[in-house]
Amino acid sequence: MLDKKTNELLKIIDNQKNNLHYTSVNCTIKQKTLVYQAFYNLTLRFGASMSEHLINSKRGYNILSQLFQEYVRLLEASMPFAYKKDKELIEIDSIFHPLFNPFYGVSEFSTITDKLGVIHNNTNELYIGNRTGHCCRPYYIGKLLDIFDVKTKQSVMCSVKDYTFLLIRTSLSPDTEVIVKHLRIPAHYQMGILSHINRIKKNISEEARKL
């Protein structure tokens, strides 16, 4: 049974999502709707943690990564869909569609697991951004595509427990040589879909703190 605080958060998220058609243009409604749904789903699943995160700004394990992954899951599940842009109907049937792609290409890197079987982000491509140009770091792990064991030449995706933007937790043995393939996103929270997640989080938090 959900507690009162979680129920209030769910109402706030649902109400803000339902108001999108009055505050957003067509090309962003789909993205924002799915972001709100991701917040709703995670709040339903992890009520106490999400309450602490949204109301008290407490950092929980992997919350932003989980929100992004839930968004991508919802995005793929909703395809195909269409929206209008400049009176033209745009049909989206893949996350790789050039007009609706939340990722910045495919990355592949080699590394070895640490003593706990964790794979750390070893992406070679660098994101260089923000107005001052000081944000220069490897792209984040956006969507994990596959992990290959170099020795056996077999996929070991079944060993993945979970992953964040910066690491992948697995049940692999220490010092296992692997090749990781993933879709990347920029290491900057004001870019792409992460900017929507941050703004929507702010909107939810501001209203929730008034309760």
Series of H and E elements: HHHHHEEEEEEEEEEEH
Shape: globular
**What number is the mean pLDDT?**
88
Count of strand segments:
11
Query: What is the CA-CA span between the terminal residues?
Result: 20 Å
What level of helicity do the residues show?
25-40%
* Helix count from the secondary structure assignment: 6
**What structural class is derived from the secondary structure elements?**
alpha+beta
Strand content: 25-35%
Count of discrete domains? 2
- With strands numbered from the N-terminus, the spatial order across the biggest sheet is 3-11-7-8
Q: Gyration radius, to the nearest Å?
A: 19 Å
Main beta sheet: 4 strands, antiparallel
Task: Provide a compact summary of the structure.
The chain is of the alpha+beta class and 211 residues long. Helix content is 38%, strand content 27%.
